Inverse folding.
């Protein structure tokens, strides 16, 4: 898809994110991905505080993969980018890229698969059209 955008946040590697060697602990990335995802949705007009109430769905993560390419260290300023890798009928894939600010080399890449489920029954349901439309600018559909 031509011209998709990536949404990027900046996060500093803090003391609570690192191990004894002052290298980022893998679990800290999950928080960074969550922050980027939440802010992407907010930027698209789908703030979690209201979106779930309006669309009557939840978006549980059903799959997560992450590749760690380089070590991030205490006090590094990271850029965490996110975009839609694919829209399925009832699920969507979000892709993540992590770099040090002002560097091109990837530190980590990841993707999450989010399923749309009915809030009452937890049965899978189609991704709402409004969500697809609002996230269209960030859709890379592989």
């Amino acid at each position: 898809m031509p011209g998709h955008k990536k949404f990027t946040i900046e996060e500093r590697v803090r003391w609570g994110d690192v191990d004894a060697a002052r290298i980022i602990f893998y679990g800290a990335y999950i928080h960074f991905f969550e922050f980027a995802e939440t802010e992407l949705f907010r930027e698209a007009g789908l703030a979690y505080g209201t979106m779930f109430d309006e669309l009557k769905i939840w978006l549980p993560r059903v799959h997560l993969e992450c590749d760690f390419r380089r070590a991030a260290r205490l006090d590094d300023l990271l850029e965490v980018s996110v975009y839609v890798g694919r829209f399925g009928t009832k699920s969507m894939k979000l892709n993540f890229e992590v770099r040090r600010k002002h560097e091109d080399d990837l530190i980590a890449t990841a993707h999450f698969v989010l399923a749309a489920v009915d809030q009452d029954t937890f049965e899978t349901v189609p991704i709402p059209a409004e969500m697809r439309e609002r996230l269209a600018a960030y859709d890379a559909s592989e």
